[in-house]
Amino acid sequence: MGKLLEVKNLQTHFLTRGGVVRAVDGVSWDVEEGETVALVGESGCGKSVTALSIMRLVAPPAGRIVGGQVIFKGRDLLTLGEEEMRRVRGREIGMIFQEPMTSLNPVLTIGRQLTEGLEIHLGMSGDDAKRRAAELLGMVGIPDPARRLGQYPHQFSGGMRQRMMIAMALACDPALVLADEPTTALDVTIQAQILELMKDLARRLGVAMLIITHNLGVVARYADRVNVMYAGRIIERGTARELYGRPRHPYTLGLLRSVPRLDEPRRARLAPIEGQPPDLTRLPPGCAFAPRCAFVVERCGREAPPLAAVGDGDHVSACWESARLQREHEPAR
Amino acid sequence: MSPRAESAPAPAGHRAATGEVLLEVRDLVKHFTVGGGMFGGRAGTVRAVDGVSFTLRRGETLGLVGESGCGKTTTGRCILQLERPTSGQVMFEGRELGTLSDADLRSMRRRMQVIFQDPYASLNPRMTVGQILAEPLAVHGVVPDRQRRRERVRDLLSRVGLLPQHADRYPHQLSGGQRQRVGIARALAVEPSLIVCDEPVSALDVSIQAQIINLLEDLQSEFGLTYLFIAHDLAVVRHISDRVAVMYLGKMVEIADRRELYDSPLHPYTKALLAAVPIPDPVLEAQRVHSVLVGEVPSPLNPPSGCVFHPRCPIAIDRCRGEVPPLREVMPGHWAACLLA
Fold this sequence. Notes:
- The structure holds 2 protein chains of 2 kinds.
- Chain A is α/β, with parallel strands linked by helices.
- Chain A has helices at 47-54, 82-88, 100-103, 110-122, 126-139, 145-148, 158-170, 188-205, 216-222, 240-245, 250-258, 322-329, and strands at 3-16, 19-32, 36-40, 63-72, 75-76, 93-96, 176-180, 208-213, 225-230, 233-239, 308-309, 316-317.
- In chain A, helix 4 packs across helix 5 (126-139), helix 5 (126-139) crosses helix 7 (158-170) and helix 7 (158-170) packs parallel to helix 8.
- By secondary structure, chain B is α/β, with parallel strands linked by helices.
- In chain B, the strands form 2 sheets. Chain B has an 8-stranded mixed sheet with strand order 6-7-8-3-9-10-12-11, sandwiched between helices.
- In chain B, helix 4 crosses helix 5 (146-159), helix 4 (129-139) packs parallel to helix 6 and helix 6 packs parallel to helix 7.
- The model of chain B is unreliable at 4-16 (pLDDT under 50).
- Chains A and B meet through helix 8, helix 9, helix 10 and helix 11 of A and helix 6, helix 7, helix 8, helix 10 and helix 11 of B.
């Protein structure tokens, strides 16, 4: 399969009172056609800013994309005119956000919000758009779609609104959907419904997905490949199986060990990652994770480790000590 | 009958509860009237908590789980008397809170504290951490002397893993995890016996959650604290709780020893909740059968007849539509509200 999206050395900075925040600090990754890729990390790691940068939705003047390329279907999105970019958003790349209520227009009917895109992007007539809108609502499992089209977002439950967002994202047959924490605001049984729906639709329609989340369980259920971010950089990448089965970065290992799991015997004590999340205005020289790292050596304070191959396939990790980590923590399974 | 602690098995784990009942909640009901306002909507009653009973022994942690709107937070607020229950009793340290005068209630409040989900919203942004911690010590007369108060604040900071210099910081100068530590220190300040923890880690980053959970466990064994731990994260609740109660639409549907509840759940809702939690392991996830619970939680304004879970229940029979299943002791110490359990 060919590469659908290729992000190369992307850098996005924010100007704050505390100084320049390098929210995205030179990240490179890609999505192949029909593939589901995850960007995982904790708040402030730069995963959402990465998605906003791809869509060129970083708010100026504070936020600025200062370098890199975003090659989508062979074109660099960062060099497109605003008019062309509008055609990419919503039509070629769909978007699903965490809180549907803030991204839906409260004074427009569900039907109007769906048909608008169809009319603008695909040039459909009003009647065709309406028919297609009802079809889309049916596809995402909203019962009685014809009646629902006349309703407003506040008449939908949280789960229904997220289904509606998925319908909007898929309306124009995009090649890629960006989903930023798509199930974080939902209850666990509704989360399960939405994940199954997204997975099923992605497979059926052959659409590629970029899922951005902090939830390691969601990623495990969902993604083919995973990028782990910390302090604006990707610190590990691999297939989901490689990365979960054989983590090669101390941060990934720490994340996986710190969460209590229902499939394992209860542990007497949790193993947290010590210390505080990094202050992006005052990052240490060298590796940003070094102050919290259990494997830290003297070199980590001076030199930031590059992503380097650590195992099968495309498994890469940015750690000087990944070989030691492997020796000491090769899991038994 | 209600699920009293006397009939429950002793909790497993290192924290042995002493057996003395610290808190008893009997048939707690909290209804809210809504609508009928300026837009002329029809007035209705939200049955937020609809007949909940349980006991909590000294030194024990009871986990209270359920999805949004199930009534778990309202239950906690009624226990703390932040909401006046519509009916039912809350017995705490042998006294019925509903009958206390305001002055008695105020002094009782010292004995039960709360830790909120969002420490940022519950800490005064204009006060330093030192002032935030000194305030309850002064108000409740715990440490009347100003100099001694300063020492006590320093002591509290170190107990929750903060440094003396944090006393001079403002909440916005702290990270989320540090702010939650301040929230915990504030609850500890007045030497309570019960702490209601309402989603204390769900707003925190994954790497910080474990730090806070370990801290809560350490403080419990150090001070003999009793926790009512309200949360939606079933894995976190299993880790920290001795017993676990599951709520759905204002009702308690199951309560049991932690091990019993997770290893052999009886209620179909508990089973569905456990099955819905994604496991952070792609190999296991690929093997799991994802039988997804259909539908959504009905409105508590107009709950279903009979068993409130029956419209979504995969095993419901005709009787479930008409009959409200009582919470009954299906196995020793394991209570479930299901006709088929």
